[in-house]
Prior knowledge:
Blueprint: H1 4-33, H2 39-60, H3 78-109, H4 122-148
Helix pairs in contact: 1-2, 2-4, 3-4
Amino acid sequence: MKRWPKKLADLVGGGLFLTLFIVFVIQVTARFGFNKPMAWTDEAAVILYVWVILWGAAFVVPEREHVVFDLVWNSVNRRTRQGMKVVGNLLIGALSLWAIPGTWDYVHFMNREGTPVLDISFMWVFFPFVLLLAALVVRSAWGIWQAMRGVGLESELRL
């Protein structure tokens, strides 16, 4: 039962990506098949791309799948890894938490303008960045909790 948030996040991410793909196919077909480019498809594709990337980074891609530089991580002992994980998550979480109010102010301010073709409020275009920051705060808190319990401190060396 506790896996439903992950499934919902995956469904939303998949739906966003599928919509992006459909818009892209319409765009290519209209432009090259019928020589009638449609402006709305360019705009929709850009907005959907922003949403797909930020939604995926926030809710779909597990932490262990993000790009990391693990040369130092693999060369230190378990206790040092624990400290690195706590400090790293504390920095990311604190910076993300600090950035949320200013980011929200900007995103909310952008509600006054709309996109040129679809007239979608820029607030909705940039909103997933606020979601990403909030997710980083939660993920960082969880990472600190896991590190304090000694979970996830194994070597990441993969051959």
